[in-house]
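Q: Please design a sequence for this.
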């Protein structure tokens, strides 16, 4: 009997493409510059909750470097996406609340990408691509 929510292979290809492009954009534009210019970033990172520059920069690096690597591999996708979404929401709502939709469009698009991946899961094209995770995400 065919599973109720089976998906065609092109869905897996689309989810992989979304993971690949979203993660590479996040890494290239936000994550890697924070790592390569750590000392400089400490002097200019916003601190919306008054925790100090280290405690503001380290979660951003985790969400923008480590989490995209997990998402790209398709492992721990949901918690990694939630970390990325959390940092993006802090940036968009608390750090840059005065930005117009045009000024914040890249951040909003990243939120759309990683929220979509949090909802759908990684698809079958991932490391350890068994079926356990698919059932959890309702795909089989």
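A: Design:
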């Amino acid at each position: 009997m065919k599973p109720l929510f089976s998906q065609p292979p092109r869905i897996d290809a689309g989810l992989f493409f979304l993971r690949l492009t979203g993660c590479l954009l996040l890494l290239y534009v936000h994550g890697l510059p924070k790592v390569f210019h750590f000392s400089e970033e400490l002097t200019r990172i916003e601190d919306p909750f008054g925790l100090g520059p280290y405690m503001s920069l380290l979660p951003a690096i985790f969400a923008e470097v480590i989490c995209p690597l997990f998402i790209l591999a398709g492992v721990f996708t949901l918690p990694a996406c939630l970390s990325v979404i959390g940092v993006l929401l802090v940036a968009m709502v608390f750090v840059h609340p005065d930005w117009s939709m045009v000024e914040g469009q890249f951040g909003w698009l990243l939120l759309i990408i990683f929220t979509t991946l949090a909802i759908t899961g990684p698809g079958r094209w991932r490391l350890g691509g068994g079926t356990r995770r698919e059932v959890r995400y309702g795909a089989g």
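Q: Thanks. Anything notable?
A: Residues 9-127 form one domain. Helices lie at 9-36, 38-44, 53-73, 77-95, 105-120, 132-136.
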